[in-house]
Amino acid sequence: MTLNRQIILASRPDGAASADNFKLQEAPLPPLAEGEVRVRHHYLSLDPYMRGRMNDSKSYTAPQALGEPMGGGTVGEVVESRFEGLAPGDRVLGHGGWQEWSQLPGKAWTKLPTDDAVPLSYYLGAVGMPGVTAWVGLNEIIQPKAGDTVLVSAASGAVGSAFAALAKARGCHTVGIAGGPEKCAYAEQELGFDVCVDYRPHADAQSLSKALKAVCPNGVEGYFENVGGMIMNAVLPRMNAFGRIALCGLIAGYDGAPTAIDNPSLFLIQRLKMQGFIVSEFPKSWAPALKELGDLVKAGKLRPRETVAQGLEHAPEAFFGMLKGKNFGKQLVKLI
Amino acid sequence: MTLNRQIILASRPDGAASADNFKLQEAPLPPLAEGEVRVRHHYLSLDPYMRGRMNDSKSYTAPQALGEPMGGGTVGEVVESRFEGLAPGDRVLGHGGWQEWSQLPGKAWTKLPTDDAVPLSYYLGAVGMPGVTAWVGLNEIIQPKAGDTVLVSAASGAVGSAFAALAKARGCHTVGIAGGPEKCAYAEQELGFDVCVDYRPHADAQSLSKALKAVCPNGVEGYFENVGGMIMNAVLPRMNAFGRIALCGLIAGYDGAPTAIDNPSLFLIQRLKMQGFIVSEFPKSWAPALKELGDLVKAGKLRPRETVAQGLEHAPEAFFGMLKGKNFGKQLVKLI
């Protein structure tokens, strides 16, 4: 009998979330039902949106149920199948959650190619949801022309990495914002950013805004926002007329820190457009996005870095580290 | 020799603007040059955007030059013409500014119909720039379907009045926000709003938001913003998924009061779109907008109220009254 280790949401955070909100448990796998597949998870994806699901508040996804394994994207291998379209040995992508195994209907999984050069873990990052997120924000909302200046916060993360490769492919002046000199050097040297600005030495939005002005001398046409707060307040004065802001995340506020937009009159003065979005609501974008992202990886133009925690029991620690920006590129947990 | 009375911008405001920033002066009209027309202004339009032009700061229009007559929309009658397309007696619309007469190139004026039932002053309001502003925000940005709930702040003003008639014509549940029970009663009884909420009794955004919830039980699909600050913070929690915000003005902040958007995460959670806009940048909208607005007036479905100050010397006082919401409907100055 196979024992499945799981991390469940044991309690909801009161303000800041902590490892105490999670609990590791073991449960035997039941027999496989008709139509299901048994999948051994190889990697679990850790993503900022999971923090929102820990709360019991109105959001774009239902709150994570208490006492259940945390939801999350996984890649793995089919070990046993009672579903016609999948066979043992198939590599699959789906929402297996924070556990080592899952038994879900076969149709809940996407079968991955076995004959390409893309590592399995990339399907959770650059050639997965975060990569498609960058693609949608860039193409559906920012819609840049060659020569435009585009800016992204959390530049060295999974979304930022893909954003840089996609924006460079469109001939944009591509600027990142990240925390610390190592991440900025990585963004410039490996991810293809023309320049990356370290926000950490700046005490306030005004100071950061001045630094952004120096590297965006012609202003900014498109901004992809993952962070919010001081960073958004620093970027807004740099936006050119008719600029577009793709609002993807506000990680600065996930634990309750203030993220107010101090000067909304800039939206009026510069006729800016801001749109919040969720990648799952752009189903038609996935196929072209995954194709382009895969091609960029194969061409060596998208070389995402990963931070990999080893073992399910380290998922909470890795998750909170990511929320504080301790990861370097896509944060994963290796489960096998 | 005709003496022309003018109000010039004598100094720029330091924080709050006051009548001291203006100066009334008299100047003789020079001989009319080739291509020009001499126009006797009948009405001067007072509009919130003029407050922004008093400052010497980056905005979507150039600052008002010091020592020159304040710019502004006017309607009047041609008295003398050295321009082929206009003759004495023609009714015209243009930017004559805060003065009793002007001598401008004839091509700067739009000749108005003489055979319709639309009063001359309406071409500065419901069938003019403010009306077209409402049309653009509603049709180009909010794009409502029949049955949608749409909300507008400064509901009883020139823009709000037109917004109500246009939104009702599209089958929307049309809700206004205005200051005081008289304006709200007027909005409901004369302008066609289904309901109008008085913001004045509410001490904070949370209280106003609760009142809005009561009259928008199904949430809000589209919001037309003229005010900002507490009112925007009260509206945002009422927005439904994929809601659209047409950002037209932030009158609450024109004298430096805080207008921060306290909780931008609502844009993400509800995938909202917000767009700042200026009516002059939608040239293709003017003809269909003016046609529809004129038809609504003739059909008695748009009956804008006007607040008319008598005499150029009262323009500054009327202007500051409007910025504080003392006007009732379109604020004009009658010059003849």
Topology overview:
The structure is a homodimer of 336-residue chains.
Chain A (H helix, E strand, L loop, with lengths): L2 E7 L12 E7 L7 E10 L3 H6 L19 E8 L9 E4 L6 E5 L4 E2 L17 H14 L6 E5 L4 H12 L3 E6 L2 H9 L5 E4 L6 H11 L4 E6 L4 H6 L3 E9 L17 H5 L3 E4 L9 H13 L7 E5 L4 H9 L6 E5 L2
Helix pairs in contact in A: 2-3, 2-8
Structural write-up:
The structure is a homodimer of 336-residue chains. Chain A is α/β, with parallel strands linked by helices and 336 residues long. Chain A is built from nine helices and 15 strands. In chain A, strands 3, 4, 5, 6, 7, 14 and 15 form a seven-stranded mixed beta sheet that branches. A six-stranded parallel beta sheet of chain A has the order 10-9-8-11-12-13, sandwiched between helices. The two termini of chain A are 18 Å apart. Chain A binds chain B through residues 58-60, 228, 232, 241, 247-250, 253, 259-265, 267-278, 281, and chain B through 58-60, 228, 232, 241, 247-250, 253, 259-265, 267-278, 281. Chains A, B: Keywords: Oxidoreductase. Chains A, B: GO terms for molecular function: oxidoreductase activity, acting on the CH-CH group of donors, NAD or NADP as acceptor. Chains A, B: Residues 17-333 form the Enoyl reductase (ER) domain.
